């Protein structure tokens, strides 16, 4: 079960990680105010149930042969629950920036750097720590009624099993969990203004739950005693699902958002607070950074400026994104001097700046639609590369790079990644990296796989991209410009975001 930002996917795996069937159920983002991004947890609960049933139905699969269910979920969601188990809020997701002011004060006045060093979660509005502080200050009535502060995974598990449990991996992305002790961090709790018993019981990522609610088992089409393995967050599971769990193996995932990650054997944090550190298992820790601005940039471009591709795609029965990327192929590397800073939703790693804004730089009369499309593809990879640079400083150079997520379907986008990083990019056959990671962790927990490293024998590489070193020179030159531009515009971003906020109100 892979519970993502825009949909939940259920993927049924057979031996050696072979995909038997999958089914996806989408849901909407809710944006009630500028900088707010929420989802209806009830819709997601329904999507989870429907996706599992859909995958089993597509496979015509007899559920008595189902070994178990592993769970992957997006990080940083927050739902406030009352004492009767009713949600007092929607799910406030990672892209929500309402707590920017609280994050700023935690950083400057509340020893935020020390909290980051202990928890591995940079101080940022994405973090449940900042969000809880916002609720305490800005929604005191909700805060007073709060019995539990939970994530979307905990919400699902509560409805499935009647228990509040959270795995170390989701907990390690809250800003409230101490990496060294695997317990809630006392200083972080004080900053949030809550007690440890207002959070769920902490459990390892291999923890098993049994005794599914009969009505939900019936609706899913599975047995009540099917074991569920609590699993981890989608980021660390993507590394496991592409086999990037050895030293120097880097995973690049770009879906709606994106991330660059590598696995280490003990928690590592960064003196410049550029990276996160999250748990996979007690022997595997994932260091890396997320970008807000992945495939969502291409979606914005299609929705706002891609009407001609959408029309043609409808007529021909093809994907409008494929048509847009085909147009971008006409343009050389570097988009003839058009550079895109892809900060349409602020930015997380390595800048952690919710006020950053999107910028096209260098526009000339020679630039056409295809240049803008290619510049968007390249800008997303520049963002990914900036995280790769921070990661290299902490853990050494990448040995190989493995690509997953929706962008991995595009040969052009993968080649831009190889050219920018100057490293060969490997593309595993299965795009469902987080789902496979969840399945592997479940197999390990249930005793079917001794070590999670065995997954490396399952990974079939479907494509390899050698870097074009001439393009690499162009991209490195552009990257230095990208970094300088960000530094020069940092103060101006604060001004324009304040202006936007004022005008939106």
TrEMBL record:
GO MF entries: D-xylulokinase activity; gluconokinase activity
Similarity comment: family membership: Belongs to the FGGY kinase family.
EC numbers: 2.7.1.17
Keyword hit for Kinase: yes
CDD domains (alphabetical): ASKHA_NBD_FGGY_GntK
Keyword Transferase: yes
Domain Carbohydrate kinase FGGY N-terminal positions: 1-241
InterPro entries named among the record's database cross-references: ATPase_NBD, Carb_kinase_FGGY, Carb_kinase_FGGY_CS, FGGY_C, FGGY_Carb_Kinase, FGGY_N, Gluconate_kinase
Record-level GO BP terms: D-gluconate metabolic process
Organism of provenance: Bacillus safensis
UniProt protein name: Xylulose kinase
Domain (Carbohydrate kinase FGGY C-terminal) ranges: 251-445
Spans through the membrane: none
Record keywords, A-Z: Kinase, Transferase
PANTHER family per the UniProt record, alphabetical: GLUCONOKINASE (PTHR43095:SF2), SUGAR KINASE (PTHR43095)
PROSITE patterns with a match to the protein in the record: FGGY_KINASES_2
GN (gene name): xylB_2
């Amino acid at each position: 079960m892979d519970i993502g930002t825009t949909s939940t996917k259920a993927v049924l795996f057979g031996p050696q990680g072979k995909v038997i069937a999958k089914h996806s159920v989408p849901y909407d983002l809710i944006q009630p105010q500028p900088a707010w991004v929420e989802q209806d947890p009830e819709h997601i609960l329904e999507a989870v149930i429907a996706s599992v049933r859909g995958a089993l139905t597509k496979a015509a699969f007899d559920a008595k042969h189902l070994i178990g269910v592993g769970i992957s979920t997006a990080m940083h969601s927050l739902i406030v629950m009352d004492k009767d188990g009713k949600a007092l809020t929607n799910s406030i997701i990672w892209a929500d920036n309402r707590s920017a002011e609280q994050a700023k004060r935690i950083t400057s006045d509340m020893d935020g750097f020390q909290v980051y060093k202990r928890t591995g979660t940079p101080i940022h509005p994405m973090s449940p720590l900042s969000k809880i502080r916002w609720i305490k200050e800005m929604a005191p009535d909700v805060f007073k009624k709060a019995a539990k502060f939970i994530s979307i995974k905990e919400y699902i598990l509560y409805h499935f099993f009647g228990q509040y449990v959270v795995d170390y991996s989701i907990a390690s992305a809250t800003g409230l969990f101490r990496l060294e002790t695997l317990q809630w961090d006392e200083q972080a709790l004080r900053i949030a203004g809550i007690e440890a018993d207002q959070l769920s019981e902490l459990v390892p990522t291999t923890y098993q739950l049994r005794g599914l609610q009969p009505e939900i088992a019936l609706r899913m089409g599975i047995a009540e005693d099917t074991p569920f393995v609590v699993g981890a967050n989608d980021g660390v599971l993507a590394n496991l699902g592409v086999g990037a769990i050895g030293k120097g193996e880097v995973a690049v995932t770009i879906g709606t958002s994106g991330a660059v990650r590598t696995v280490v054997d003990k928690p590592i944090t960064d003196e410049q607070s550029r990276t996160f550190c999250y748990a996979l298992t007690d022997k595997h820790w994932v260091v890396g950074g997320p970008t807000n601005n992945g495939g969502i940039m291409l979606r914005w471009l299609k929705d706002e400026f891609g009407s001609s591709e959408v029309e043609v795609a409808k007529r021909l029965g093809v994907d409008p994104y494929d048509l847009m990327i085909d147009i971008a192929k006409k343009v050389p590397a570097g988009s003839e001097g058009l550079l895109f800073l892809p900060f349409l939703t602020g930015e997380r790693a390595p800048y952690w700046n919710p006020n950053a804004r999107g910028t096209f730089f260098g526009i000339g009369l020679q630039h056409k639609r295809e240049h803008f499309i290619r510049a968007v593809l390249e800008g997303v990879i520049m963002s990914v590369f900036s995280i790769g640079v921070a990661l290299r400083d902490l853990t050494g150079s990448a040995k190989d790079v493995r690509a997953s997520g929706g962008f991995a379907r595009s040969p052009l986008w993968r080649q831009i990644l190889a050219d920018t990083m100057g490293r060969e990019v490997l593309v595993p056959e299965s795009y469902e990296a987080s789902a496979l990671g969840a399945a592997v962790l479940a197999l390990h927990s249930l005793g079917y796989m001794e070590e999670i490293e065995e997954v490396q024998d399952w990974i079939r590489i479907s494509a390899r991209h050698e870097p074009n070193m001439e393009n690499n020179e162009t991209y490195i030159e552009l990257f230095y410009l990208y970094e300088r531009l960000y530094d020069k515009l940092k103060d101006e971003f604060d001004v324009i975001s304040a202006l936007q906020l004022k005008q939106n109100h």
